[in-house]
Amino acid sequence: MKNLAKEILAYILWPILLGVPIFLVYTGIESGRPTLYFNIAYLGLAATLFVLERLMPYREDWVKSDGQEFPDFAHTILNKGLIQLALFLLLISGIIQTMGNKDASSYWPSGLPLAAQVVLTMVISEFGLYWAHRLEHTWSFLWRFHSVHHSVEKLWFFNTGRFHFVDTFNSLLFSIPLLFLLGVPGDVFIYFSSITAFIGLLTHCNIDVHCGVLNYIFNTPNVHRWHHSKKVEEGNNNYGENLLLFDMIFGTFYFPRDRHVGPLGIKEYMPKAFLGQLAAPFRWNKTQNKQGQ
């Protein structure tokens, strides 16, 4: 009976973990305090994942420390902190609130239901995010920065934000400006950015979940683990940030059902210290020479 309950929980957990934070963001928007409620939702989700990763881990060995907690945290603070600061400044300046308040020449279909506008925003932004991510794997210059994220040898919620700030800037450049130009309404933009943050945490979580058909729609932990495979032929797939639509279209969806993912990480050398990781892409050749020493 206990095993049956755990199996049922594994199938319903991912939608619940995504749905509850989204509802909190909805509450925040309705009350006029979206930033506060987003932070409550984000930290609450992180705390929940921390507990669940110990109660029902996907991999027991990933629960053990890899010695990268400080670099993971520092990258997260640098990236998420700058993004949140930018969003906060946009909010207090009134820019987000006025997004979408344009005349009839605006390209955005503001007459659609709110949920449809959020989905449309996710699809449009996903096209840019997909190609930004794919370039980061196939263009050696951008890979230098993106390899900081892929240098981890385990996945858990805490290393979700482990991105080089140049890597983060590249992703934002490929997705956000178009949304502004299209005149996406402020509330829709808040929903989109919040969902992106929540899905990001969930894709990295070390929890034994079974997402079923959702594995073919969203970037779930079941699918994303293969993207972190140390084997290039496996890792250079599943580029979707939130949705897997363009992986399906462009033939980069990869999800073997008959086995578990093997070792994670990269073949290149990456310093263990935070400052070394920040500097490594800018002095790539010199950094790689240390691998053979």
Could you please describe the fold and organization of this structure?
The structure is a single chain. The protein is an all-alpha fold. The protein is 62% helix and 0% strand. It contains 13 helices and no strands. Helix 5 runs antiparallel to helix 7. The protein has one domain (2-292).
Q: Quick gist of this model?
A:
The protein is an all-alpha fold and 293 residues long.
Main beta-sheet annotation: none
State the order of secondary-structure elements, H for helix, E for strand.
Answer: HHHHHHHHHHHHH
Structurally, the number of domains stands at 1
What is the share of helical residues?
55-70%
Distance between the termini: 55 Å
**Which runs of at least 5 residues are low in confidence (pLDDT < 50)?**
none
Content of β-strand? under 5%
Would you spell out the secondary-structure blueprint of this structure?
Layout: H1 2-31, H2 34-55, H3 69-93, H4 95-98, H5 114-138, H6 140-150, H7 165-182, H8 186-204, H9 221-227, H10 232-235, H11 245-250, H12 274-279, H13 284-289
Key words describing this protein structure:
globular, mainly alpha, 293 residues, 62% helix
